[in-house]
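S.,

Sequence below, as promised.
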Amino acid sequence: MPDKDEIARVIAEAHRRVEPAINRIVRVVADENSEADSSEPIKLLEVNPDTSASGILPIAFGADPPNIPFPSVVIEVTEGEFDEIQNGRLFLPDGWHLGVTLYPTAA
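The prediction came back faster than expected:
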C-alpha cells in the first residue's frame, strides 16, 4: 500500500491539473501519532488566487480505493489568507500546522 506522502503528491498533482490557477499546495499535518493512523486524512492547503477569501473551511473527502486509500481534506485559500496563516493571524484547526510544500516542488 502506498504511504500518505505518495498519495498526497498524487492528489496535489490531480488538483493542479483540474485547477491550473493553484500556485501553491502545502501539506497540513497533525501530530506524528495522528498522522500514523490510516483514518487520519491527508490534508492539503491549496493557494488559489482565483478563489474568494472565506477563511479556513476544510472540505472532507472519503477514501477512493484502490487509488486513494486514505480520506482527505482540502483547504483552499487566497494568497492573502496564506500570508495570514504564515504570520499567525489566521489559524488552521487545532493541532494542524503547515508541513512540506508539494507544489511548487523543491528543486
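The CA atoms of residues 25 and 44 lie 7 Å apart.

Coffee later?
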